[in-house]
Specification:
Layout (H helix, E strand, L loop, with lengths): L4 E5 L3 H12 L8 E5 L2 H10 L4 E5 H4 L6 E3 L5 E3 L5 E4 L12 E4 L5 H13 L4 E4 L5 H6 L5 E4 L3 H4 L6 E5 H9 L3 E9 L4 H20 L1 H10 L6 H11 L2 H4 L2 H14 L12
Parallel strand pairs: 1-2, 1-3, 7-8, 7-9
Antiparallel strand pairs: 3-11, 4-11, 5-11, 6-9, 6-10
């Protein structure tokens, strides 16, 4: 009998879509699950303290927890054309941000790391101000910061706020590496053992496959946590961030995760992903 596990993921539509089967019990987990939904940076902080058994984390944040956790092959957010974007109130170029205050959705997020790498590559220095992800666009629109790094549904709605896209950080990563951008992954505590890790990976796959086959079953659950997103944005969010890599990262995905982890300061040690 598997023990009850503490599972954490975000309220974003891609996560609630993937995990609805497990959350509803239609995909069974022997022993049961206690589920926590939280903002991505809150989840990253929880992972750093080891509070949860299975947890969605930014791949950048995973670099600091791999002694205690291993990443699963399923359930994450990865792909081409899915990366965070940099938005401004008016037409700007990257060089014009030198020395300016820029909002980012948390220091441990993949978005923050990508922006830092991009700025370093361009030879500019900025002051980053960390915010909850849904505070970034309002801060840019109000002129509180010169630009903002936008994640989640902001990729689709920034124009509604009167903002302009300066840079697509996912496209920048793809040009420089040729790899998909690994935004988030599911981590499981190493102490639970390989058998449990494999079983959880398969349970997540089955939960995702159920959502793909019967999307109406998950609709109310997704909508309840979607923070007032309209239905069209919810569907675009899912279509963008739930990809074939969410079922299994594959060889290209493993290479992408390894590359990003190294950029985030991970040094080769324990195997970082389940086989």
């Amino acid at each position: 009998m598997k023990k009850k596990l503490l599972l954490g993921y975000s309220p974003c539509p891609n996560d609630t879509y993937i995990f609805h089967g497990l959350a509803s019990g239609s995909v069974a987990w022997p022993g049961g699950l206690e589920i926590t939904l939280a903002d991505v940076e809150e989840l990253n902080a929880s992972a750093a303290t080891g509070k949860l058994d299975v947890i969605k984390v930014s791949v950048a944040a995973a670099a600091g927890i791999l002694d205690e956790y291993v990443l699963l092959r399923a359930g994450g957010a990865m792909g081409y054309g899915v990366g965070p974007i940099v938005v401004t109130k008016g037409e700007r170029d990257l060089a014009s941000l030198d020395g300016k205050v820029i909002a980012t959705p948390g220091r441990k997020t993949t978005a923050h790391l990508l922006f830092g790498l991009c700025c370093h590559n361009a030879g500019i220095n900025v002051e980053c101000r960390e915010m909850i992800f849904d505070e970034v666009m309002p801060a840019v629109a109000a002129g509180e910061v010169e630009a903002g790094v936008v994640i989640h549904e902001g990729r689709f709605t920034f124009g509604d706020k009167g903002l302009n896209k300066l840079l697509d950080l996912g496209a920048w990563w793809e040009r420089h590496t040729g790899l998909p951008i690994p935004l988030g992954a599911i981590a499981i505590r190493r102490s639970l053992g390989e058998e449990t890790a494999r079983a959880m990976n398969e349970a997540i796959r089955q939960s995702l496959l159920e959502a793909s086959q019967f999307p109406d079953k998950a609709a109310a659950y997704i909508k309840a946590h979607a923070q007032e997103m309209d239905d069209a944005v919810i569907q675009e969010h899912i279509a963008t961030f739930v990809t074939d890599y969410s079922l299994d990262v594959g060889d290209a995905g493993v290479s992408a995760v390894r590359r990003l982890l190294k950029e985030a300061g991970w040094t080769q040690g324990n195997e970082f992903i389940t086989v």
